# Entry
Amino acid sequence: MEAHAEVYAALKRALRAGASVRGTTSPNPPVGAVILDADGRVVGTGATQPPGGPHAEIVALREAGARATGGTAVVTLEPCNHTGRTGPCAQALIRAGVVGVYFLHRDPGAAEGGGAQTLRAAGVNVGQLELTPDTFGPDAELPIDGVAHWLRAVERQRPHVTVKFAQTLDGYTAAPDGTSQWITGPQARAAVHEDRAHRDAIIVGTGTALADNPSLTARFPDGSLREHQPRRVVIGTRSIDGAPQSGNLNRLGFVQYPDIDMALRELHAAGCRDVLVEGGAGLIQSFFQRGFVDAVQAYLAPLVLGGGRGVMAGPLGPSLGDAARFTPQRVCRFGPDILWELKRREEG
# Structure
């Protein structure tokens, strides 16, 4: 089924709706949905609600009401086909009288998948869309695709892992004396806190916890807390419980795991699907060495130090062949700083 311009405009709107609820839906995916009426006008927009609440399609259909009849649904994940805590979205779309459904990602679940087949059997035209750097035009910013992170977690049976760091132009995250506040400016730091509010957990090593006394909270520029707060996670064997130099974490509460494998296993079991690793250099190196880094957020500041501390504690190997390779996804500017977002390049 051929997609027209209004379908791709609706897909961008659906992606933004899904991105707005990232961090609140796990272990369910942050899906976005848009309903177009028979004339191609947006009449309903929805996003997945917290577990137990309605799925994105249901929210959008409720907003559209009778205007959905004869219309088209555009969804970031194939409409589900099973009854769990909520009913099957494929059947809801059929009852609403939509005549077309476009979706971005196929649902991999044995019970949840198959919605497209159910829709086709009911006479609904179904098409699958593709998201590439040129989907919305060569100069358009690619919206965040939270469902892709969730799918990675389903595939790997562990949370999707993003490593975040801020560095100078010449690759240093701290000066020779260890100072690192602040490499980036206030606009970039505000973006970091907004992103934290869309993660299931923030992870640091014991060295960072003891040296920097981080809060690992998602805050507004005035210091007030955002509505959604990620889990605060520390990895390592050194105790930080009660240590005065980790007072913020002791005050706010945290969970500690001795190693990366246990952390990812336990976090996945607890429903976490999208986590952010913020340091330090030894922990980041370990994540790379284990092959657990799915994405990178690199904040680049217009500074040159000429020496200092790097992103990792050491090399991944002696040659370029040992490098971890990534594909650029988005480039954003925050004041004088640049954010480069990349995803892991799959072998082959």
Observations:
- The two ends are 30 Å apart (CA to CA).
- The CA atoms of residues 210 and 245 lie 5 Å apart.
